[in-house]
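Please check this:
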Amino acid sequence: MLAGVIVDMDGVVVDSHPTHMLAWKMLLEELGKNPSESDLDFVLDGHRREDILRHYLGELSAEQIVEYGTRKDALYREAAQELKTIRGLEEFMDQLAAAGIAMAVASSAGRQRVEQTLEKLGLAKRFRAVVTGDDVVKHKPDPAVFLMAAQEMGVRAESILVCEDAAVGVIAAKSAGMKCLGIAVEGREAQLMQAGADRVVRDFREVRLEEVSGMF
C-alpha cells in the first residue's frame, strides 16, 4: 500500500535543468572549456557537483572544488530569476496531502540550495523530511539518501514511491526496494525505463493518485 512519496528536487520539483545547464556552460567557458550541448548531458544524469567538475576538468584539489562550486552556484543564482515547479506537481501534492500520504525530498544537491529553493517556491512546509547530499556519505546510485528519507518519514521502503528524473536516481530507488516513477521532462523516457523505472511520464499532469496507488 502506498504510504509515502519521495521526490528528487532538480527536474522533479523544480524545472531547474535549463538554468543549471546554462550555469555549468558559463563556468566551463570561464575555465577555458567549450562544451557542446551533448557534452552537457552529463549534468542531467544526477551526478554530484564534485563529480561533474572532475568529469570536465580532471583531478582537482579540495580547494578548487569549493572555489569552482561556489562560482557555479553564483552563476546559477544570477540565472534563476523565476524558477517554476514541474507542471502538475502541486496538484499531485494536494492529492497526496488529502490522502494523508507523507512526502519527502531526497536530493543530491547541497542543503542550502535545496532549502532556499523550497522556500522560494513556497513548498518547504509540505514535506515531512528533507534529505540532501550533505546528509549522506554515499550518493546516488547508492540508495542511502532514499533510505534516510524513508526513516525520517517513518514509512517502510516497500510502501514508498520515488519520483526521479535521472537514471542514477532510478537505480538508487529500486536498490532501496521502492517503486519509481520516472519524470521525463527532458525527453529521457528510454533511459529512465532502461534504468528500471516502473512507469515514466512527461510531467505530473499525467499522474493520478489512484493510478500510482495501483502500482503497490
